[in-house]
Amino acid sequence: MADEIPSHFIDLVQDAMLKSFWRKNALLNFLRRHKISETFLASWQETETKRVFITRLLPKLEAHAKGGQILQQMAISLADQVKFPDLEGWEDAKEKVQSAQEAIEALRRYIEIQKQKTEEIKEREEIKKVARERLQKTIANRQTLEGLSSELTGLSKRLGTQEAGYAFQKWFYDLVGFFEITHRRPYVVDGRQIDGSVTIEGTTYLTELKFTREQAGATDVDSLLTKVNDKADNTMGIMVSMAGYSEIAIQQASGRKTPIILMDFSHVYLVLAGTWNLSEVICRMRRHASQTGKAFLPRVDFDN
205 has which bridge partners? Predict the structure, then answer.
């Protein structure tokens, strides 16, 4: 219910009380059960009718700090009635019960409508809350991606240096971690350097990261293919070459059941722009490789 108690609601409660209780003691007992003070109950004059007494009571409840809560409890108790013992034994008991049932039904309908409205408001508020949280997360993500983008721009000034190459490895796995992708940072196995790995949809991809001024060539592709072919059948490879690839390198990586995909700067900046996340880009390129046998899918062809 709203803080300001609707007058129609009060009228329904009053009507239900008047028609549910005809004897004074029955009405007093009902009021006692709902915390109406004995002082006020004792003020019922012998000459006062039920209607006059209740008409005095309700405005006091409206003005009381807990009056709204008391009225709601009264309404619930009245609406829960299935029998009317105080109406039995009267000559016109049948008419009294019918009148009480109609009053109670009207109160029940009102309570149900208010309940539905409350649930709708709650649902709308929940939708707004989720939307706000999504917006806040989007803003936070954008800020984080902008930070990663700025960091990459700074690294690009040292493109081709060994120091920048190691920094790019760290940067790449910071990007992977941002998207909460299962991964392993660079490690050595059987004396062979592995630039790390990422696992997406059950497939583990060994990574080869190239932060050089020159395009990756066929020998770079052969090196990654050798590492991948030494591993389990569900292992694939991802090469990220910011300078791109020679035509021979792309041809060497492509073919029937190619186990590697090739990413360049355009794919990285697609992720940094927030248009696609990293997992989506990798999965899109894998589907392309599975369907065509081509390891490289240019950014411009992503929507085809």
Answer: 198, 236
Count Cα neighbours of 243 within 13 Å in the Cβ-side half-sphere: 15
Instruction: List 235's β-bridge partners, or say none.
Output: 204
Nearby residues of 10 by Cβ (< 8 Å), 6 or more positions away: 58, 62, 71
Q: Which helix (H) or strand (E) holds 192?
A: strand 192-194
Cα(81)–Cα(74) distance, integer angstroms = 11
**CA 99, CA 86: separation in Å to the nearest integer?**
13
Structure tokens at 80: 């829960």
Closest C-alpha among 3, 113, 2, 7 to residue 58? 7
For strands 235-241 and 260-263, give the pairing: parallel
Report the residue count for the chain.
304
Given a cut of 50, is residue 277 above it in pLDDT? yes
The residue with tokens 């709308």 is 124
Cα distances from 239 to residues 108, 255, 273, 282, in angstroms, run 68, 16, 20, 11
Cα–Cα nearest to 183, from 200, 169, 170, 164: 200
Single-letter amino acid code for the residue at 249 = A
Q: pLDDT digits over 150-204, tens only?
A: 999 999 999 999 999 999 999 999 999 999 899 999 988 777 788 999 999 999 9
Question: Per-residue b/e over 53-84, b at no fewer than 16 CB within 10 Å?
Answer: bbeebbeebeeeeebbeebbebbeebbeeeeb
